[in-house]
Design goal:
CBS-domain, Clc chloride channel, 4-stranded mixed β-sheet, 3-stranded mixed β-sheet
Length: 639
């Protein structure tokens, strides 16, 4: 028996063609196989890991070229020409034998400006290489689909070599973050991967760059997936980042040797009563980090007001750096006899080494505390002048150094005040390293693990956890990287993922129009009657065939009708039971994401909705799902 109901007027049920572009976009997202389906498939993951290993190898060799070229430039320019002897960390290698020449302060005063000017001129080819480099990579991830221009790695490398090799106060890790991330993006472009895979390779390359130069493979991988957000991390990129980091680290140490960057005590015993001191130190280091951010912003703001071409502005910062640093370096060199400059120029890793292990020539007692505090303040100003004016130098390394200097000064002061022989200033210096950068960059986990790798053990894990947590809260509203977003929900890179996640949160029954009249058939309905009813139903595409108990047993679609109606003999003898296909449907308790996948997989524009007993409740078509999709699009972040 046929249940032929009235066709609704256009205002109630006629399908709109306007949302079709949105439907096609949803179809493309689901068909991509790597968006909106949760975890990537094993085949997809295997391909990404293979690509990540290739990125790690490429970044490892690029880091070798960068570090060696930088060391050679520094040797000939700073050491041989200016007679400046950089203070090095115990694990820092030297490309060439140390030079012994006359100190020329007048030349040292202008070299940072000259190097910054050359680096600025080179950066005309890629203005995004100015500054530290991490912000540019974060911005490329969120707003550019992981796309980086092919010229960026070369331009960044040359600009950073001239800036740092001539005495700029900055680190090597920031440039290698941008160089590595750019290489990851370029590899993804040549392999023609999806946007999401290219972003993952960009993150993997970033991790590989830090891993090679800082020699902290696990910490670098964690930091790379954490630094993109203030309160979130890129879980999909973690395993590829670990693999790329390991490969890059292995390539780098094959040439430069396996060792931690800093020498340190063999063991740091855990003393629970010292935890309040670590907590207090975290607040002191957070204050120093706040001073660094404010100083950096002041330099950037003043530099922006200077009426001069952008590429010349780093030279102005270099001139001020030379004027500030040269007198201090001259005085320190004549009074101490060793440790000339104490790391004011360059990354300053030697200064952090002094804070950790001291040195025979370094002053003891309160005099040593005063020197470290003064050095930390000078390093803040020096780095701000270099990076804040647009010089191609990293802020990552100097941040770790500053944290080590202030942490070491606090540890020395605590030792003098409490007279506790168990207090080791080196432990406070290492904890200060992770606390300073972890709080400013909002990477507490990555910086924690990185510090443990630098120390060669996890003896400091508990005080690090305490100090990192305090700094994370204290510096909640401050950041070193303005391109960071709060969470994935705020990132245009995850806009499509979040839209599909949004659809997962909507049940079918919340948007189902239940009182919409439907045409349905019994199993024994003649084909001629089916064709007549379907011809008069201008909004319905899926027609249910019901069993004797009223449950759904099959679906008649337009495709089936086209096949059947063309044969008059079949039409004369066939029944609905002969014309129906499998009972494709969706439960009223399912979500829209699942309904959309079923719809796309079966090339249907409409799905029947049934309850738990198999009774038909209504139909769900593309229009309802598209409306939900457009609502999500309207509220999601836009690129």
């Amino acid at each position: 028996m046929t249940e032929s109901l009235h066709t609704p007027p256009p205002s109630e049920g006629r399908r709109s063609t306007l949302p079709q572009p949105a439907v096609r976009r949803l179809t493309a997202l689901l068909d991509s196989g790597f968006v909106g389906r949760g975890a990537p498939t094993l085949q997809m993951l295997g391909r990404v890991l293979l690509h990540a290993a290739a990125v790690g190898a490429a970044v490892g060799f690029a880091s070798l070229v960068f570090v060696y070229s930088l060391d050679v430039t520094q040797h000939f320019v700073l050491e041989r020409l200016a007679g400046y002897l950089p203070l090095r960390a115990a694990g820092e290698g030297e490309a060439l034998a140390p030079a012994s020449t006359t100190f020329r302060p007048w030349l040292l005063a202008i070299l940072p400006a000259l190097g910054a000017l050359i680096g600025g001129a080179v950066s005309i080819l890629a203005p995004e290489t100015r500054g530290g480099g991490a912000d540019a990579i974060i911005d490329a991830f969120h707003n550019k689909g992981g796309q980086v221009r092919r010229r960026v790695p070369i331009v960044k490398m040359i600009a950073s070599i001239t800036t740092l090799g001539f005495g700029g106060s900055g680190g090597r890790e920031g440039p290698t973050m941008q160089i590595g991330g750019s290489i990851g993006s370029i590899v993804g472009r040549y392999l023609q991967v999806t946007d999401r895979e290219r972003r993952i390779l960009l993150v993997a390359g970033t991790a590989a760059g830090m891993s090679a130069v800082f020699r902290t493979p696990l910490g670098a991988a964690l930091l790379a997936v954490e630094v993109l957000h203030r309160d979130d991390f890129e879980s999909d990129a973690l395993v590829p980042s670990v693999l790329a980091s390991v490969v890059s680290y292995s390539v780098f140490i094959s040439f430069f040797g396996e060792s931690t960057l800093f020498a340190h005590a063999a063991k740091y015993p855990f003393v629970p009563v010292h935890l309040p001191l670590y907590a207090l130190m975290a607040l002191v280091v957070s204050g120093a980090a706040l001073l660094f951010v404010r100083t950096m912003e002041t330099v950037r703001r003043v530099t922006a007001t200077v009426h001069a071409p952008a590429w010349t502005k780093p030279a102005l910062g270099g001139l001020l750096l030379g004027a500030l640093a040269t007198p201090i370096i001259y005085l320190l060199g004549t009074r101490m006899g060793e440790g000339q400059g104490l790391g004011i120029l360059g990354g300053g890793y030697g200064a952090a080494q002094i804070a950790i292990t001291s040195a025979p020539w370094f002053p003891e007692g309160w005099r040593g505390v005063q020197v470290l505090v003064a050095l930390g303040i000078v390093k803040i100003v020096a780095t701000s002048l270099t990076v804040g004016s647009g010089g191609s130098a990293g802020d990552f390394g100097p941040s770790m150094v500053m944290g080590g200097i202030f942490g070491g000064a606090f540890g020395r002061a605590a030792q003098l005040l409490w007279h506790d022989p168990r207090i080791d200033p080196g432990a406070f210096a290492l904890v200060g390293m992770g606390t300073f950068y972890g709080g400013l960059a909002h990477v507490p986990i990555g910086s924690l693990v990185m510090t443990c790798e630098l120390a060669g053990s996890y003896d400091l894990l508990v005080p690090l956890m305490l100090a990192e947590g305090i700094a994370y809260v204290a510096l909640r509203n401050q950041t070193l990287y303005h391109a960071q977003v709060k969470t994935k929900r705020d990132s245009p890179a995850h806009r499509d993922d979040l839209i599909l996640d949004f659809l997962k949160g909507i049940r079918v029954d919340t948007i189902l129009v239940k009182d919409r009249p439907l045409a349905s058939f019994a199993r024994n309905t003649p084909a001629s009657e089916v064709i007549r009813v379907v011809a008069n139903a201008d909004f319905q595409d899926a027609f249910p065939v019901l069993g004797a108990d009223g449950t759904l047993v099959g679906v008649i679609t337009a495709e089936i009708l086209r096949t059947t109606a063309g044969d008059p003999e079949v039409t004369r003898v066939a029944l609905a039971d002969d014309m129906m296909g499998v009972p494709i449907s969706v439960r009223d308790t399912d979500d829209l994401h699942n309904a959309l996948e079923i719809m796309i997989a079966n090339a249907m524009r409409e799905l029947l909705v049934v309850d738990e007993d198999g009774k038909v409740l209504g139909v769900l078509d593309q229009t309802e799902i598209t409306i939900a999709y457009l609502a999500a699009t309207a509220t999601a972040p836009r690129a």
